[in-house]
Amino acid sequence: MLAGYDRNIGARHLDLGPGTGFFLDRCRHRSPRPQIALVDLNPTVLTKASTRLRRFGPDTFERDVLSPFELDGKRFDSAGLNFLLHCLPGGMAHKAKVFDHARAHVVPGGRIFGSTVLATGVAHGKRARKLLGELNEKGTFDNRGDALADLEAELAARFTDYRLTVRGSVALFEARV
Ligand SMILES: C[S@@+](CC[C@H](N)C(=O)[O-])C[C@H]1O[C@@H](n2cnc3c(N)ncnc32)[C@H](O)[C@@H]1O
């Protein structure tokens, strides 16, 4: 996942669902002064991640990525959606709208990338299967219906240049806008 950030992040980066900001803290930025915008539904996440990333002076936006959202007209070279889709409700066609909502803010030739835990089409060890059940019960994950083939179909419907790889239970994707 970190390699995905290193490979795809641009000088102006939009991160959807940044969590703790771990990857933006650790990845290799293109520029010594990257412009970073963080989008999340949860204001506590935004406070925590922006504090961790304060050396970059990130902008924060409290938004629901499942609906189209405004970012004060800002445009970005990349958008990251790491470990976001498996948290979202609905089927893959519904979750994939996030690609459209992100793409609206990314310049032509920019990158959209991330990863998600899938339920089918990938390998699950015994412990992973148990954890997947528990996380879905708790509502932390909502990915019981998420299949590799459906994710690939949604990427293929939107992007001509994309890459989808699988590591264990996780699908990693990157696409050129
Ligand atoms: C599992 S965390 C991902 C953390 C981070 N990207 C990483 O890879 O370490 C999922 C993040 O998505 C956010 N999130 C979940 N649903 C969302 C929604 N509908 N709109 C915006 N953010 C959402 C959560 O608040 C959380 O910060």
Automatic annotation (TrEMBL):
What are the Methyltransferase type domain coordinates in residue numbering? Answer: 14-112
Its GO biological process annotations read:
methylation
Q: Which residues form the signal peptide?
A: none
Q: Which CDD domains match?
A: AdoMet_MTases (cd02440)
Q: Name one GO molecular function term.
A: methyltransferase activity
Q: Cite the entry's keywords alphabetically.
A: Methyltransferase, Transferase
Pfam families in the record: Methyltransf_12
Spell out the protein name for this chain. Methyltransferase type 12
Organism equals Embleya scabrispora
